Description:
With about 200 residues, the protein is an alpha/beta fold. It is about 35% helix and about 15% strand.
Amino acid sequence: xxxxxxxxxxxxxxxxxxxxxxxxxxxxxxxxxxxxxxxxxxxxxxxxxxxxxxxxxxxxxxxxxxxxxxxxxxxxxxxxxxxxxxxxxxxxxxxxxxxxxxxxxxxxxxxxxxxxxxxxxxxxxxxxxxxxxxxxxxxxxxxxxxxxxxxxxxxxxxxxxxxxxxxxxxxxxxxxxxxxxxxxxxxxxxxxxxxxxxxxxxx
Length: 203
Ligand code: ATP
Ligand code: MG
């Protein structure tokens, strides 16, 4: 806490599975923006490509819980799972705002790949009023500011860049590696790796 201000990071994702780049991004944002905590919010519904193997909602939630337990500043919020249906960021932030009250400073953390879709998010202008958007680097992506002026006011005020060490890893690549019997050691926390093995996920 800084005086009366409570600064809360919100890290949404499908987390199928959660991996070390998610954790690194959240921790760097926490330190650089002096956040009091970061909430990991597993999405309820995700777009799925045909032919892949995916974890259930319960399994994704369990893996996120395992991943964050060793960090006292991290916790899991089930607002998207409780609400159900497609998980729109505006609803996620709305529910977290209700929980923490009008005084809370909310920081919605996204990777650069996710930011480029901002113009297509539901009510981007309202979202940008309700929280600050924090963008972390992701290998292969850069910010194109030109698309944002049309959808939110003062994009450079509302969207904050946090540079963090980048890792070219994704849940998609982790699922592919598990399916083909390759190691995911150091891609995910040990407890998550053990959970994937025990529950025979992504085969
Ligand atoms: P998938 O391959 O299934 O899409 P993912 O690795 O992109 O998985 P998500 O759950 O889609 O993970 O992402 C949740 C959030 O984390 C998004 O904001 C995304 O941009 C960010 N993110 C994911 N991987 C990275 C990474 N390697 N570096 C920076 N940000 C990342
Ligand atoms: Mg993704």
